Amino acid sequence: MTRALCWLCMIGLVACSESGEPGATAESANHPGAGTYEMFCIACHKLGISGAPRIGSAEAWEELASTGVERLLARTIEGIPPAMPAKGGCLRCSDEQLKAAIDYMLDQSLVSRPSEE
Ligand code: HEC
Q1: Top mutation candidate among 44, 46, 70, 93 for ligand 1, by most atoms within 8 Å of CB
Q2: Is the pLDDT of residue 67 over 70?
Q3: Is any ligand 1 atom within 6 A of the Cβ of residue 109?
Q4: Mean pLDDT for the chain?
Protein backbone atom coordinates (compact mmCIF):
# COMPACT_ATOMS: atom_id res chain seq x y z
CA MET A 1 0.00 0.00 0.00
CA THR A 2 2.55 2.53 1.13
CA ARG A 3 4.82 1.27 -1.55
CA ALA A 4 2.17 1.68 -4.21
CA LEU A 5 1.44 5.21 -3.09
CA CYS A 6 5.08 6.07 -3.24
CA TRP A 7 5.30 4.71 -6.73
CA LEU A 8 2.49 7.00 -7.73
CA CYS A 9 4.09 10.02 -6.23
CA MET A 10 7.34 9.23 -7.96
CA ILE A 11 5.58 8.95 -11.27
CA GLY A 12 3.92 12.23 -10.49
CA LEU A 13 7.22 13.89 -9.74
CA VAL A 14 8.84 12.57 -12.85
CA ALA A 15 5.92 13.59 -15.02
CA CYS A 16 6.01 17.01 -13.47
CA SER A 17 9.68 17.64 -13.90
CA GLU A 18 9.64 16.27 -17.40
CA SER A 19 6.86 18.37 -18.74
CA GLY A 20 8.17 21.37 -16.85
CA GLU A 21 6.18 24.06 -18.50
CA PRO A 22 2.67 25.12 -17.73
CA GLY A 23 -0.04 23.88 -19.97
CA ALA A 24 1.11 20.31 -20.37
CA THR A 25 -1.96 18.13 -20.00
CA ALA A 26 -0.21 15.41 -18.01
CA GLU A 27 0.21 17.67 -15.05
CA SER A 28 -3.18 19.29 -15.11
CA ALA A 29 -4.45 17.08 -12.31
CA ASN A 30 -1.68 18.41 -10.09
CA HIS A 31 -2.71 22.01 -10.44
CA PRO A 32 -4.49 23.21 -7.30
CA GLY A 33 -7.16 24.85 -9.43
CA ALA A 34 -7.88 21.92 -11.70
CA GLY A 35 -10.53 20.38 -9.47
CA THR A 36 -12.51 23.58 -9.07
CA TYR A 37 -12.26 24.28 -12.77
CA GLU A 38 -13.47 20.82 -13.65
CA MET A 39 -16.38 20.98 -11.23
CA PHE A 40 -17.64 24.44 -12.08
CA CYS A 41 -15.92 26.61 -14.60
CA ILE A 42 -15.62 23.92 -17.25
CA ALA A 43 -19.34 24.14 -18.00
CA CYS A 44 -18.88 27.48 -19.72
CA HIS A 45 -15.18 27.97 -20.12
CA LYS A 46 -14.42 24.80 -22.00
CA LEU A 47 -16.38 25.75 -25.07
CA GLY A 48 -16.79 29.45 -24.47
CA ILE A 49 -20.50 29.39 -23.73
CA SER A 50 -22.16 32.83 -24.00
CA GLY A 51 -18.86 34.46 -24.78
CA ALA A 52 -16.89 33.05 -21.87
CA PRO A 53 -13.15 33.18 -22.53
CA ARG A 54 -12.39 29.67 -23.66
CA ILE A 55 -9.74 27.64 -21.87
CA GLY A 56 -6.86 26.91 -24.20
CA SER A 57 -7.39 30.09 -26.17
CA ALA A 58 -4.44 32.41 -25.72
CA GLU A 59 -6.33 34.99 -27.70
CA ALA A 60 -9.20 34.97 -25.26
CA TRP A 61 -7.04 35.16 -22.16
CA GLU A 62 -4.01 37.21 -23.03
CA GLU A 63 -5.66 40.54 -22.66
CA LEU A 64 -7.52 39.45 -19.53
CA ALA A 65 -4.31 38.16 -17.98
CA SER A 66 -2.65 41.47 -18.60
CA THR A 67 -5.26 43.18 -16.44
CA GLY A 68 -4.05 41.17 -13.47
CA VAL A 69 -5.18 38.12 -11.61
CA GLU A 70 -6.47 40.19 -8.69
CA ARG A 71 -8.91 41.96 -10.95
CA LEU A 72 -9.99 38.70 -12.55
CA LEU A 73 -10.56 37.27 -9.11
CA ALA A 74 -12.67 40.25 -8.09
CA ARG A 75 -14.72 39.92 -11.27
CA THR A 76 -15.17 36.22 -10.67
CA ILE A 77 -16.34 36.73 -7.10
CA GLU A 78 -18.85 39.36 -8.20
CA GLY A 79 -19.93 37.51 -11.28
CA ILE A 80 -20.49 39.07 -14.65
CA PRO A 81 -24.17 39.49 -15.32
CA PRO A 82 -25.94 38.01 -17.02
CA ALA A 83 -23.74 35.25 -18.29
CA MET A 84 -21.42 34.41 -15.45
CA PRO A 85 -22.79 33.61 -12.01
CA ALA A 86 -21.09 34.97 -8.87
CA LYS A 87 -18.04 32.90 -7.98
CA GLY A 88 -18.45 31.08 -11.27
CA GLY A 89 -21.27 29.14 -9.66
CA CYS A 90 -19.12 27.76 -6.85
CA LEU A 91 -20.62 29.58 -3.91
CA ARG A 92 -18.77 27.52 -1.36
CA CYS A 93 -15.41 28.12 -2.99
CA SER A 94 -12.92 30.20 -1.09
CA ASP A 95 -11.18 33.09 -2.80
CA GLU A 96 -8.07 30.95 -2.86
CA GLN A 97 -9.86 28.19 -4.71
CA LEU A 98 -11.32 30.60 -7.21
CA LYS A 99 -7.95 32.18 -7.74
CA ALA A 100 -6.41 28.77 -8.30
CA ALA A 101 -9.11 27.96 -10.85
CA ILE A 102 -8.39 31.20 -12.70
CA ASP A 103 -4.71 30.48 -12.53
CA TYR A 104 -5.37 27.05 -13.95
CA MET A 105 -7.27 28.47 -16.89
CA LEU A 106 -4.50 30.98 -17.51
CA ASP A 107 -1.92 28.21 -17.31
CA GLN A 108 -3.79 26.17 -19.83
CA SER A 109 -4.38 29.06 -22.13
CA LEU A 110 -1.33 31.23 -22.24
CA VAL A 111 0.98 28.66 -23.75
CA SER A 112 0.89 28.06 -27.41
CA ARG A 113 -0.19 24.53 -27.91
CA PRO A 114 -0.28 22.52 -31.10
CA SER A 115 -3.86 21.44 -30.66
CA GLU A 116 -6.58 21.59 -28.12
CA GLU A 117 -7.13 18.23 -26.57
C1 HEC B 1 -22.55 29.72 -16.45
C2 HEC B 1 -21.36 29.96 -17.20
C3 HEC B 1 -20.06 30.25 -16.49
C4 HEC B 1 -19.49 29.56 -15.46
C5 HEC B 1 -20.01 28.33 -14.75
C6 HEC B 1 -18.22 30.21 -15.19
N7 HEC B 1 -18.05 31.27 -16.02
FE8 HEC B 1 -16.48 32.57 -16.01
N9 HEC B 1 -17.35 33.62 -17.53
C10 HEC B 1 -18.51 33.29 -18.16
C11 HEC B 1 -18.79 34.26 -19.20
C12 HEC B 1 -19.97 34.24 -20.14
C13 HEC B 1 -17.73 35.18 -19.17
C14 HEC B 1 -17.56 36.43 -20.06
C15 HEC B 1 -18.40 37.51 -19.48
C16 HEC B 1 -18.28 38.80 -20.21
O17 HEC B 1 -17.16 39.22 -20.52
O18 HEC B 1 -19.31 39.41 -20.45
C19 HEC B 1 -16.84 34.75 -18.10
C20 HEC B 1 -15.67 35.41 -17.77
C21 HEC B 1 -14.78 34.98 -16.80
C22 HEC B 1 -13.55 35.65 -16.48
C23 HEC B 1 -13.01 36.91 -17.13
C24 HEC B 1 -13.47 38.07 -16.31
C25 HEC B 1 -13.29 39.38 -17.01
O26 HEC B 1 -12.77 40.28 -16.39
O27 HEC B 1 -13.72 39.52 -18.16
C28 HEC B 1 -12.96 34.93 -15.49
C29 HEC B 1 -11.64 35.22 -14.81
C30 HEC B 1 -13.83 33.81 -15.20
N31 HEC B 1 -14.93 33.88 -16.00
C32 HEC B 1 -13.57 32.87 -14.25
C33 HEC B 1 -14.42 31.80 -13.94
C34 HEC B 1 -14.13 30.81 -12.95
C35 HEC B 1 -12.88 30.79 -12.08
C36 HEC B 1 -15.17 29.94 -12.93
C37 HEC B 1 -15.36 28.72 -12.06
C38 HEC B 1 -15.16 28.86 -10.63
C39 HEC B 1 -16.14 30.41 -13.92
N40 HEC B 1 -15.62 31.52 -14.53
C41 HEC B 1 -17.34 29.79 -14.21
C42 HEC B 1 -19.35 32.24 -17.86
C43 HEC B 1 -19.14 31.32 -16.84
Answers
A1: 44
A2: yes
A3: no
A4: 81
